[in-house]
């Protein structure tokens, strides 16, 4: 009996401890410096591993910056390259600045937030791939919301998910309809210029839901109308429609 207990104790002593939990953003101490709201950067990070994000957030907090609660409140997006993440594409329509981590590094050295102009993100490879200028896209987004005055109906099987697409559309000033519009409703909006334009977005697996539209020669576009559209801040009615 005694031997059995000793073996059990030995097993307990030698058993590996569970790995320590990774620190979460909410576990980090609150910002140590308080800046006026109008000069406080509200930041999103995208494209970094968790350890890098933790380090960046500590420096951000020390300088008086904050993590944005959502894209609508984001003023600065920090990224190493152009990515088509939810954060990048929602922030694209909202933020004042898209900068590299060097902006935060230089601000840390100066112990104050420095001018963003010298740290604007440049990604020649992505700009060639998607035929756009990030600087020009931001300028357009600041001028007017891309999807302002536009309604979207997005079929349920869309990829990225409907929730993701809805967030991207709404940040760009559009509205996503919860109910599939009839041909009659679409034509009503088309003929009455005081009503919002209705744009239909679908995918290969959902085309059976769009049969009536195709029969009546109503354009249906794939997800790139929104994804590439927001990235380039252009409305391209020809490149992404199903034929």
Automatic annotation (TrEMBL):
Pfam families: BRCT_2, RTT107_BRCT_5
GO biological process assignments: DNA damage response; positive regulation of transcription initiation by RNA polymerase II
PROSITE patterns listed in its UniProt record: BRCT
Gene3D superfamilies, per the entry: BRCT domain
Keyword Signal applies: no
Subcellular location: Nucleus
UniProt keyword Membrane, yes or no: no
Keywords assigned by UniProt, alphabetized: DNA damage, Nucleus
Residue ranges of domain BRCT in the record: 58-121
Polar residues: compositionally biased ranges: 1-15
Segments for region (Disordered): 1-33
GO cellular component, one term: nucleus
PANTHER family: PAX TRANSCRIPTION ACTIVATION DOMAIN INTERACTING PROTEIN, PAX-INTERACTING PROTEIN 1
Name of the protein: PAX-interacting protein 1
Species this chain originates from: Anguilla anguilla (European freshwater eel)
């Amino acid at each position: 009996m005694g031997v059995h207990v000793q073996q059990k104790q030995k097993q307990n002593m030698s058993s590996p401890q569970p790995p320590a939990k990774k620190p979460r953003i909410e576990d980090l101490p609150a910002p140590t410096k308080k800046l006026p709201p109008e000069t406080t950067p509200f930041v999103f990070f995208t494209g970094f591993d968790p350890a890098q994000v933790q380090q960046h957030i500590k420096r951000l907090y020390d300088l008086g910056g904050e993590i944005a609660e959502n894209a609508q409140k984001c003023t600065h997006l920090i990224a190493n390259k152009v990515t088509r993440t939810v954060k990048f594409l929602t922030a694209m329509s909202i933020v004042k600045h898209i900068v590299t981590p060097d902006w935060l590094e230089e601000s840390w050295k100066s112990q104050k937030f420095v001018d963003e102009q010298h740290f604007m993100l440049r990604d020649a490879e992505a700009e060639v791939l998607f035929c756009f200028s990030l600087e020009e896209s931001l300028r357009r987004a600041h001028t007017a919301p891309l999807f302002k005055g536009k309604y979207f109906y997005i079929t349920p099987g869309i990829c990225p998910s409907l929730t993701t697409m809805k967030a991207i559309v709404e940040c760009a000033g559009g509205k996503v309809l919860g109910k599939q519009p009839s041909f009659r409703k679409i034509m009503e909006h088309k003929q009455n210029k005081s009503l919002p334009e209705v744009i239909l977005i679908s995918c290969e697996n959902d085309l059976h839901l769009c049969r009536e539209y195709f029969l009546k020669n109503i354009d249906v576009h794939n997800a790139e109308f929104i994804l590439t559209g927001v990235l380039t801040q252009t409305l391209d009615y020809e490149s992404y429609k199903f034929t």
